[in-house]
């Protein structure tokens, strides 16, 4: 008998009983049938599965959300670097019309991945409280934020790379780090303070943090 099997604890006594019955009855053809059924998952195990699912989903969403501000910043810095913005202003384009058209376009294009993400959550049965509210408010936070960060750069490649890393680290990675800090009683206050700070530093953090909180609410209570 293989004593390294994961089922040996349940099966070994049954084989022992079968051997005893064969000896007692004198019947070598006697068979002792065994049926096993797993116990249902307890609440703590279900909470752990939801936690792992929430962290993984937040990581994936963080990667996708990092590309949204990167595309916005890249286009604005590109026009500034090539002198296209100055050319349009000199040609008579109103600054209000220029930024207003860009703002409207960026808001609408940001809603596309937000609707897609929310629809996928619904399709796969992922229930995160208030996630639709966060996704609907996200474009109105990330677009002005991205416009403000364009003043830090003069080259498109630098702006795009920095923005991707900023939002990826500030959303998916920071969310997991803050969750780990809040799970330990000795560092829970540090995690709360860092979470409050990241809400102002990186709008993408709010989306990923909502997903992590929704997946780990059973453990955080």
Word description of this protein:
- With 221 residues, the protein is an all-alpha fold.
- The chain folds into two domains: 1-37, no CATH class; 43-220, no CATH class.
- The protein has helices spanning 8-25, 43-82, 84-90, 95-123, 131-149, 156-183, 188-201, 203-220.
- It is elongated.
- The model has no long low-confidence stretch (mean pLDDT 84).
Put the structure in a nutshell:
This protein is mainly α. Helix content is 78%, strand content 0%.
Produce the secondary structure layout.
Layout: H1 8-25, H2 43-82, H3 84-90, H4 95-123, H5 131-149, H6 156-183, H7 188-201, H8 203-220
Question: What are its keywords?
Answer:
single chain; 221 residues; mainly alpha; 8 helices; 78% helix
Structural domains: how many: 2
The major β-sheet equals:
none
User: What amount of the residues lies in strands?
Assistant: under 5%
> Helical segment tally?
8
Average per-residue pLDDT, rounded, comes to 84
The total strand number stands at 0
Low-pLDDT regions:
none
- Any idea what the shape is? elongated
> In angstroms, what is the radius of gyration?
28 Å
What's the N-to-C terminus distance?
46 Å
């Amino acid at each position: 008998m293989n004593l390294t099997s994961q089922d040996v604890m349940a099966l070994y006594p049954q084989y022992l009983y079968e051997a005893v019955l064969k000896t007692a009855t004198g019947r070598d053809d006697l068979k002792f049938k065994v049926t096993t059924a797993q116990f249902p998952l307890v609440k703590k195990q279900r909470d752990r599965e939801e936690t792992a699912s929430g962290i993984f989903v937040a990581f994936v969403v963080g990667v996708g959300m990092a590309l949204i501000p990167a595309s916005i910043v890249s286009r604005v810095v590109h026009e500034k670097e090539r002198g296209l913005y100055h050319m349009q202003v000199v040609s008579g384009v109103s600054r209000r019309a220029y930024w207003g058209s860009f703002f409207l376009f960026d808001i609408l294009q940001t809603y596309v991945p937000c609707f897609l993400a929310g629809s996928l959550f619904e399709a796969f049965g992922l229930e995160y409280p208030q996630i639709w509210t966060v996704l609907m408010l996200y474009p109105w936070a990330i677009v002005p934020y991205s416009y403000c960060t364009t003043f830090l750069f003069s080259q498109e490649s630098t702006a795009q790379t920095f923005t991707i890393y900023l939002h990826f680290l500030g959303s998916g990675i920071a969310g997991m780090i803050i969750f780990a800090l809040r799970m330990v009683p000795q560092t829970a206050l540090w995690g709360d303070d860092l979470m409050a700070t990241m809400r102002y530093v990186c709008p993408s953090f709010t989306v990923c943090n909502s997903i992590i909180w929704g997946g780990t609410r059973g453990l955080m209570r």
